[in-house]
């Protein structure tokens, strides 16, 4: 019996391991990649419907008057013009004071449905520094024409306006950086027409702003001093010599106290305000003239529009407590909500 020797087995395994490996494929014989076809270009339809402009709906309810106020508006023609429809309705569903308005830069039309009357406003730029304005009440057949001229300095403006039909000399108003002055003719029964001068002048002095407001024979002088923590505002009216002063004190960034006192009547009022962020405000105060204390809570910025409030909604709660009849205290609220459709 002939057996296989271990050397022969090892020799065969070594020969198997030493077999030459196949050569790598030549790059000249590689299969070219299959080109991917480009996606077809989208074809535009022959006709497209114009995109609907966004519609804004604003509703407001006042519990004191129990009246809803609604406003529906939309901008079109690339936001060049706006169409607005507004009306009020009571809790019983009656619609009152419906109005339709068309508003643009140079022309505005306000139509009162109940009165069947329209108020037209128009303006046109005659030149870079001259503008003409017109207002016309269709039902009353009355209006006003105005010419506004910007002088060489941008802070100076001259305006001439006259009623239509004309009833006298036009009113002239000169506006300048320190205030404005108006001169117009005033007609009184059985007296000759006289000139009436009205105006307001402002200036700075002693880290404050002083204001002089005059109308016919009345003059009101006011001085306002204000820094980061305090405001002091005395004022006097002549010739009645009615003197009053207002004082405001800020305690930090969120607390503020205001006080007003009238020396001629001894009436005074005080208001405390505290803010919690931008969208929450608490106010409480007292008015001695009407003998009424009150407290108010605002959800949403009090002086801003509903579109900047959370959920585009503003809510106000107010509690009024009469000093002479506490039992007749009333809790009122006001809600304003906006929808963008």
TrEMBL record:
Region described as Disordered: 13-37
A molecular function (GO) term: monoatomic ion channel activity
Pro residues biased stretches: 20-37
GO biological process, one term: monoatomic cation transport
Protein name: Outer envelope pore protein 37, chloroplastic
Organism: Juglans regia (English walnut)
């Amino acid at each position: 019996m002939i057996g296989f020797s271990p050397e022969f087995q090892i020799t065969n395994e070594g020969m198997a391991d030493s077999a030459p490996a196949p050569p790598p494929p030549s790059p000249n014989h590689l299969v070219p990649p299959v080109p991917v076809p480009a996606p077809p270009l989208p074809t535009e339809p022959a006709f497209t419907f114009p995109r609907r402009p966004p519609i804004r709906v604003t509703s407001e309810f006042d519990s004191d008057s129990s009246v809803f106020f609604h406003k529906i508006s939309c901008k079109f023609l690339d936001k060049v013009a706006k169409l607005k429809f507004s009306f009020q309705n009571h809790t019983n569903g009656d619609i009152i004071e419906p109005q339709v308005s068309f508003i643009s830069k140079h022309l505005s039309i306000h139509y009162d449905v109940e009165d069947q009357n329209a108020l037209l406003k128009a303006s046109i730029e005659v030149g870079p520094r001259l503008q003409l304005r017109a207002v016309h009440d269709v039902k009353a057949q009355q209006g006003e024409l105005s010419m506004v001229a910007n002088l060489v300095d941008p802070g100076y403006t001259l305006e001439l306006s006259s009623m239509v039909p004309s009833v006298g000399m036009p009113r002239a108003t000169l506006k300048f950086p320190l205030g404005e002055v108006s001169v117009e003719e005033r007609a009184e029964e059985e007296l000759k027409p006289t000139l009436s001068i009205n105006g307001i002048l402002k200036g700075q002095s002693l880290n404050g702003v002083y204001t002089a407001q005059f109308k016919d024979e009345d003059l009101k002088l006011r001085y306002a001093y204000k820094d980061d923590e305090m405001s002091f505002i005395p004022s006097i009216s002549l010739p009645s010599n009615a003197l009053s002063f207002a004082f405001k004190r800020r305690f930090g960034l969120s607390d503020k106290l205001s006080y007003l006192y009238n020396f001629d009547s001894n009436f005074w009022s005080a208001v405390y305000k505290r803010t919690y962020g931008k969208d929450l405000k608490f106010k409480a105060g007292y008015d001695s003239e009407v003998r009424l204390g009150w407290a108010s809570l605002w959800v949403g910025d009090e002086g801003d529009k509903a579109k900047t409030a959370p959920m585009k909604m503003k809510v106000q709660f107010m509690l009024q407590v009469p000093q002479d009849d506490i039992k007749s205290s009333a809790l009122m609220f006001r809600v304003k909500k906006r929808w963008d459709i």
